[in-house]
Design goal:
By secondary structure, the protein is α+β, with helices and mostly antiparallel strands. The chain has one domain: HIT family, subunit A (2-Layer Sandwich), CATH 3.30.428.10. The strands form two sheets. A five-stranded antiparallel beta sheet has the order 3-4-5-7-6, with helices on one face. Strands 1-2 form a two-stranded antiparallel sheet. The longest helix has 21 residues. The mean pLDDT is about 95. The chain binds adenosine monophosphate and zinc ion. The site of adenosine monophosphate has 12 residues, from loops.
């Protein structure tokens, strides 16, 4: 069920909406009118942070453009802060969309995963290869009409 709470659309059974609404505590990094950034409670690495829109949407397609813009502005703010506050060597920005991609919580979120030399994480698995013909065909198929 969707309610309008504090000017935001809120799903009663969504854990991230409940965090936004203050019903579940979080380690807040940053928030503004449209977005919230908080520490992932089960981090992949030290400082693993989630950035979410305050208006519930299960994926990027369901979000308004202004909310997408606000979200990535917040991602940049958090990354800038991490650069000076953590001794990180790099980072991954990750969005899991759909269960097949590992999305467990169906409220859009961007993971900011600080990376450290020898942190043991490996995201570089290449499970597919495309022929040049297929790359050409795909470029045509996916091509975005402006
Ligand atoms: P995903 O698999 O992309 O849906 O990621 C969901 C993330 O939310 C996981 O990394 C969880 O560790 C994290 N998470 C779940 N519950 C909480 C919570 N209460 N506070 C902070 N992070 C959470
Ligand atoms: Zn939600």
């Amino acid at each position: 069920m969707t309610n309008k709470v504090l000017g935001c659309y809120y799903m009663d059974d969504c854990i991230f909406c409940r965090i936004i609404n203050g019903e579940i505590p979080s380690y807040t990094i940053y928030q503004d009118k449209k977005t919230l950034a908080f520490l992932d409670i089960n981090p992949n690495t030290r400082g693993h942070t989630l950035v979410i829109p305050k208006k519930h949407a299960k994926n990027i397609i369901d979000m308004e453009d202004t909310d997408v813009e606000a979200l990535f502005r917040t991602v940049k703010k958090v990354v800038s802060s991490m650069k000076v506050s953590l001794d990180l060597d790099g980072l991954n920005l990750v969005v899991n969309q759909g269960e097949v991609a590992g999305q467990v919580i169906h409220h859009f979120h961007c993971h900011i995963i600080p990376r450290y030399v020898d942190d043991g994480i490996n995201y570089s698995s290449k499970g597919y290869s495309s022929s040049t013909e297929e790359l050409e065909e795909l470029a045509g198929k996916i091509s975005v009409n402006i």
